[in-house]
Structure formats: structure tokens, C-alpha cells
Predict the structure.
Amino acid sequence: MLPIMFTAIIACAATAAMTAPYSQLLALLAGPIMGSFAGLCVALFQAWRRGPEWSAEKDLDRQTDAMVSALRQLAEQGSAIDTASSAKHSKSLQAITEPNSTSSGTMPKRAAG
């Protein structure tokens, strides 16, 4: 991306500098057009040069999909463990908070003394 922008800016400035002595209007119109054309040429050159590497991106996509599915499986296992541990915790909490069947549920009175 940066080479495309730098090429476009340099081409725009160079075209404007070369056409400015003849006509200011021509410099204002031709500069951005030539800058855009130069950027397009650089983009096409980079695409042509990088052509074989784009097929490798499919392999990277497959690897990424495999990693995402593995992480999702780990998350599902973790949520299953969390559910089981929270069920255990709620049972133990319920056992603590329920009154004992042997006690009357009231506190014994203190002896005056």
C-alpha cells in the first residue's frame, strides 16, 4: 500500500512540476490523473509479481480455520466443565444453607448468669 501511495504522490508532483510552466490549469488537471495512473501501474505490477503467493493464502486460510475450530472445541469443553463445577457448587451451597433435620432450626438460649 505504501509503495502505491508514494509512487502516486511522486508522479503527481512530477507531472504538475513539468506541466506548470506551460499552464497552471493543465498542471492541476494532469497531476492527479498521472499520479492515479502511476499508482495503478504499481498496483498491477505488485499483483503480477505476487501472483504465486496468493495460492499460498488458501493454505493459510485452512490453517486459520483449523485453529479456530480447535479453539471453539476448547471453549465448549471449558463451558462444560464450568457448568459441572457450578452444579457441584450449588449442591454444596444448598447443603450448607438447608437446616439440619435433627435441629429445630433455632438457636439455643443462653443461660443467664
Notes: The chain has a mean pLDDT of 80. The chain is about 80% helix and 0% strand. The first helix runs from residue 2 to 19. Helices lie at 2-19, 24-97.
